[in-house]
Design brief:
Layout lengths: L9 H43 L8 H16 L4 H19 L8 H23 L5 H19 L12 H4 L9 H25 L6 H23 L2 E15 L13 H12 L10 E3 L5 E3 L6 H13 L2 E10 L2 E9 L5 E6 L13 H6 L19 E7 L16 E8 L8 H9 L5 E5 L8 H17 L3 E5 L4 E4 L5 E5 L5 E14 H5 L2 H17 L5 H10 L8
Parallel strand pairs: 1-2, 2-4, 3-4, 8-9, 9-10
Antiparallel strand pairs: 1-13, 4-5, 5-6, 7-8, 10-11, 11-12
Length: about 550
């Protein structure tokens, strides 16, 4: 008997598979959507972990975990441009927005624009890096190098640079920061990113963790150890044998008070009152007032100068005071030295201005959007001189080396580098003062406009990095805190709490000599990052993981064997 055959219509044949296909397609689409949302959520978490690793939270290992998590997620999704761009954008914004939250208190429009702009920059860099290689190892190195390179770009653009929330700040209070005297802040941020990249690679290649992979991992650890040792033994400057006795004055008072809502006289009076806690028996060479304590039309013709001169004479010491003066179409922000007889002897005008704090970029555009740009009614005028002041001290005090004094002089001048407030975030400003002969770095600052501790603690971290990079003591005087002394290894020696009115005194050793970083600057590190990306692009034509392995192991003089 012939087998029975069921005849199916053409319509039925076409219809049934189509229904199944549509259901499967919908299921795949929903799964893909869930996967995309999960990836975005993880990227946001990764960025938040990086932010938590920075001041004021300062749990620095979370930054390494955050970078590693982002890299793992980025490697698990499509390498097409759109997914990579979105993931990097979310990651960077979740990192930068919390760590730049202080901007909201001044100009909300600036807070909206800045983190989003920088996140776009990081997203572009990450997207390009993801296309450089088909090798997972090389791609991870490209990603972390691009991340550090974009951060380097942020130090210079836009608005003259906004180097806040940088990865280097998160490790300023750790032994990792000692490498800063060799590679500076940009290199240190790269180093942190590489650390996170190494963690990501260990996870991504965990299934291959045989002898071959262990050799690569051990080689990477050896490189870490060697570079850390280099940071410890590298030149760090040296003491001249002389000292200068410095008092930092913090007037205290409330935070979150904008200049347009405050009485300048109140700030001045608080610092005069705190200064009167000092006596001539303190045997001071220099009293440092913070930034913006004096707000007058012309300091040289003001009653404020009379008061400062009176205090200088009473203490028989020079005062370096923060002065805001009127200027054509704006104002100047200067640190002015008044000697022990009441005469103005030295001055430095701030070069790097705070965007959305001392001047408003895109003022007309933001005003059209309704942003409260009048919170900063006038723009600061940038200075042009080198970052140094000279402080006269009595001859015989031993407060200068032989190159700065005449044997028969009644007084001698000690050169001090100056980075006013925001400028301490820019390593070249401190380097400029040290190159001009500065033997201590002063950082007079005013954080009273900002509520909380985000900017204040990031500034202390920046001062710690500048101390390590220059091989100098740093003396930071703040209106409402923090006022600190920091040694050349980045250790905070003294600190006045936020809001407190107090003075702190210290005998500060004068130092000379240069670190490698203070001599070479950022250019070698930037060129090296670019060279790494070029190397990856060229070697990736071989489409080989061995290129990465050979590079890493070759750096420590060993050879991989299969």
């Amino acid at each position: 008997m012939a087998p029975s055959v069921r005849i199916t219509s053409t319509h039925e044949v076409a219809h049934q598979p189509t229904g199944v296909t549509l259901a499967k397609a919908r299921s795949r689409s929903m799964n893909a959507a869930r996967a995309r949302l999960a990836s975005i959520a993880l990227a946001s978490l990764a960025g938040a972990l990086v932010a938590i690793g920075l001041p004021p939270w300062g749990i620095w290992p979370t930054a390494l975990v955050g970078i590693a998590l982002y890299l793992v997620v980025a490697e698990r999704v499509s390498l097409r441009r759109a997914p990579q761009f979105v993931l990097a954008l979310v990651f960077a914004w979740s990192w930068l927005a919390p760590a730049m939250g202080w901007m909201w208190q001044l100009v909300p429009g600036g807070f909206v624009i800045a983190p989003l702009l920088f996140a776009f920059m990081h997203a572009i860099g990450a997207t390009l890096a993801a296309r450089l290689s088909s090798s997972v190892s090389l791609r991870v190195v490209a990603r972390v190098t691009a991340l550090a390179l974009v951060e380097a770009f942020r130090h210079f653009w836009p608005f003259g640079g906004v180097p806040l929330a940088s990865l280097a700040l998160g490790v300023a209070d750790t032994r990792l920061a000692q490498l800063g005297r060799v590679i500076g802040p940009l290199g240190l941020s790269w180093w942190v990113a590489v650390f996170g990249g190494a963690l990501a690679l260990l996870w991504l290649k965990r299934a291959e963790f045989g002898w071959h992979t262990r050799r690569v991992a051990l080689s990477m650890i050896a490189i870490v150890v060697l570079l850390q040792v280099l940071g410890v033994v590298a030149p760090r400057g040296r003491e001249t044998g002389d000292t200068i006795r410095i008092a930092l004055v913090q007037g205290g008072g409330p935070q979150g008070v904008l200049a347009i809502n405050s009485n300048p006289r109140d700030v001045f009076d608080r610092h005069v009152a705190a200064t009167r806690l000092l006596t001539q028996n303190d045997d001071l060479d220099l009293v440092v007032w913070p930034e913006n304590v004096i707000d007058v039309a012309q300091f040289a013709e003001s009653r404020a100068l009379e008061t400062v001169a009176s205090e200088a004479k009473r203490l028989d010491a020079a005062l370096a005071v923060g002065v805001t003066e009127d200027a054509e179409n704006g104002f100047t922000n200067a640190q002015i030295v008044v000697d022990a007889v009441g005469s103005i002897t030295s001055r430095y005008d701030k070069v790097r201005r705070v965007p959305y704090g001392e001047y408003i970029p895109l003022r007309s555009f933001l005003r059209a959007l309704g942003a409260p740009v009048d919170r900063v009614p006038r723009d600061a005028v940038a200075g042009r001189e080198r970052a140094i002041i000279e402080v006269p001290v009595a001859a015989g005090d031993g407060a200068a080396d032989n190159n700065t004094a005449d044997a028969g002089a009644a007084s001698q001048k000690v050169p001090l580098a100056v980075a006013i407030s925001w400028e301490v975030f820019f390593a070249p400003r401190a380097n400029d003062g040290v190159a001009a002969g500065g033997q201590v770095v002063l950082n007079p600052t005013n954080g009273s406009s900002y509520t909380g501790e985000i900017l204040q603690r990031q500034q202390v971290a920046a001062s710690q990095l500048r101390a390590i990079e220059t091989g100098r003591f740093v003396a930071q005087a703040a209106t409402t805190g923090f006022s600190v002394f920091i040694d050349p290894d980045g250790n905070v020696l003294e600190r006045i709490a936020i809001g407190k009115a107090a003075v702190v005194l210290r005998e500060v050793p004068l130092r000379k000599g240069r670190t490698w970083y203070s001599q070479l600057g950022d250019l070698p590190v930037i060129l090296l990052m670019l060279a790494v990306l070029v190397f990856i692009g060229v070697r990736s034509r071989n489409d080989s993981e061995q290129a990465f392995d050979d590079l890493i192991v070759g750096l420590v003089g060993t050879r991989l064997t299969e």
